[in-house]
Amino acid sequence: MRIAVPKEIKNNENRVALTPAGVKELSNRGHEVFVQATAGIGSGFPDEAYAKAGATILPTIEETYAAGDMIVKVKEPIEPEYKLIKKDQLVFTYFHFASCEPLTHAMIESGSVCLAYETVEKEDRSLPLLVPMSEVAGRMATQEGAHYLEKPYRGRGILLGGVPGVKPAKVLVLGGGVVGTQAAKMAAGMGADVTIMDLSLPRMRYLDDVMPANVRTQMSNEYNIREAIKDADLIIGAVLIPGAKAPHLITREMLKDMRPGTVLVDVAVDQGGCIETCTPTTHENPTFIIDDVLHYCVANMPGAVPYTSTLALTNATLPYAIELAEKGWTKACQDNAELRKGLNVANGKVVYKGVSDAFNLPYTDVDEFLASTAGSMSVD
Ligand SMILES: NC(=O)c1ccc[n+]([C@@H]2O[C@H](COP(=O)([O-])OP(=O)(O)OC[C@H]3O[C@@H](n4cnc5c(N)ncnc54)[C@H](O)[C@@H]3O)[C@@H](O)[C@H]2O)c1
User: Fold this and answer.
1) pLDDT tens digit sequence for 125-147
2) Long-range contacts for 332-338 (Cβ within 8 Å, ≥24 apart)?
3) Does residue 35 have a known ligand-binding role?
4) Residue 232 to residue 350: CA distance in whole angstroms
5) Which part of the chain is the Alanine dehydrogenase/pyridine nucleotide transhydrogenase NAD(H)-binding domain (predicted)?
6) How high is the pLDDT of residue 55?
7) What is the reported pLDDT for 107?
8) What is the CATH number of the domain that holds 96?
9) Which of the residues 47, 96, 105, 292 is marked catalytic?
10) Domain that includes residue 210, residue range
């Protein structure tokens, strides 16, 4: 198969969809890989490394899109890319269709096959291509929180781990899933006094077993949250209710109960945020202050650490990309239920229920769709 890797053009996106190691894996299997010039530079991979691994370097985005039967990307295509995507071309990337109607219509009209990283799903309902970015964001949440607690950044002026003779900072983590666990682990490692609140008792039992002694768990409810915020120095929002907006566990009115300089890092901001006063910010301007409480609400935290994020993402995506290249999307999706869940839009049809529901579009069952396309494998 011919596989093309364009350079990401979304603002401040430095990740790339394949590393030179990934190119080597694919070309060793007899596939042709095309990489747009400088696509990997933001993640530390120069064109020469890709060429050495067997890729052909193409100078423009137009030539790169035109070269591939499968386009492998990181971010959802943005408007200038819509017209570059052709009928029957397979596009394997994050799409987040439900949050962008113009993208959904553009992909339906293109006739392409859109396999979305974020809906590839394992039997246990985990999302293997979202987990790596949650791991990055969780670890970063503590790092950023510790930074903004410093006085020059208008934080309380407290060192997360304290020092001998001085108590450490108190960190409250709302949600003990992937983000929350990684955030708590980092905070505990730095010596902070950490509390994780979640609704799931089995999850808290697990966390209680595996976390060090300076991490405790507590049931998430309004009473406990109101008590904990009074003396928390850093509060990390990491809740997720799949397919729904995050609940506002901290309301605007609760800010007055916090101490001046308390830092809020709402990682769940991409789902609306679990802190009412959080609105999405960018890496250029990541924070704002309301009622003396500092808010950090960057919606694409992993974008700030592209070296780590690219490797974390491609470690997870490459096995799927190889399967798609080896079998073609039709057979790969028939054989592998995880990949099948990733199909969102294909040959002009919406085959993912959440996307059809979001925009009231006709829905085609993915199994019926695959059965009807078997035998006409134009991209395979
Ligand atoms: N800002 C970013 O750059 C970025 C990056 C990655 C992930 N995220 C977001 O971070 C959020 C968390 O992701 P995740 O991968 O950890 O999800 P997850 O499903 O692994 O964990 C969510 C946890 O929240 C818990 N929860 C649900 N309701 C709760 C409540 N009322 N109180 C306390 N806990 C509650 C669940 O029991 C679960 O343990 C998501 O919104 C995700 O999109 C943001």
Assistant:
1) 999 999 999 999 999 999 999 99
2) 333/115, 333/366, 333/370, 334/370, 334/374, 337/123, 338/120, 338/121, 338/122, 338/123, 338/128
3) no
4) 46
5) 149-297
6) 98
7) 98
8) 3.40.50.720
9) 96
10) 131-304
Answer yes or no: is the C-beta of 228 below 6 A from any ligand 1 atom. Answer: no
8 Å CB contact between 303 and 15: yes
Give the whole-angstrom CA distance, residue 57 versus residue 34. Answer: 6
**Is 159 a known ligand-binding residue?**
no
Q: Which atom of ligand 1 lies at the shortest distance from residue 134's CA?
A: 6
Model pTM?
0.90
Q: How many domains does the chain have?
A: 2
Q: Has residue 208 been placed in a domain? A: yes
With the most atoms of ligand 1 within 8 angstroms of its CB, the residue from 179, 195, 226, 274 to mutate is 179
Q: How many residues comprise the chain? A: 380
380 within some domain: no
Domain boundary among 269, 288, 304: 304
Whether 280 and 313 map to the same domain: the answer is no
272 lines ligand 1 (CB under 6 A): no
Residues 215, 115, single domain; the answer is no
Domain end marker among 281, 304, 327? 304
Task: Identify whether residues 229 and 347 lie together within a single domain.
Answer: no
One domain for residues 277 and 212: yes
Residue 172 forms part of a structural domain: yes
Residue 270 annotated to the active site: yes
Q: How far apart are CA 257 and CA 294, in angstroms?
A: 14
CB 287 within 8 A of CB 296: yes
145/265 same-domain check: yes
348: in domain: yes
Q: Given a cut of 90, is residue 377 above it in pLDDT?
A: no
User: What is the whole-number distance in angstroms between the Cα of residue 289 and the centre of ligand 1?
Assistant: 23
- Co-location of 362 and 258 in the same domain: no
pLDDT tens-digit profile of 88-108?
999 999 998 987 899 999 999
Q: Has 291 been annotated as catalytic? A: no
| Ligand 1 centroid – CA 241 distance (Å) | 7
193, 233, 266, 270: which is the annotated catalytic residue?
270
Residue where the block lists tokens 């890319």: 81
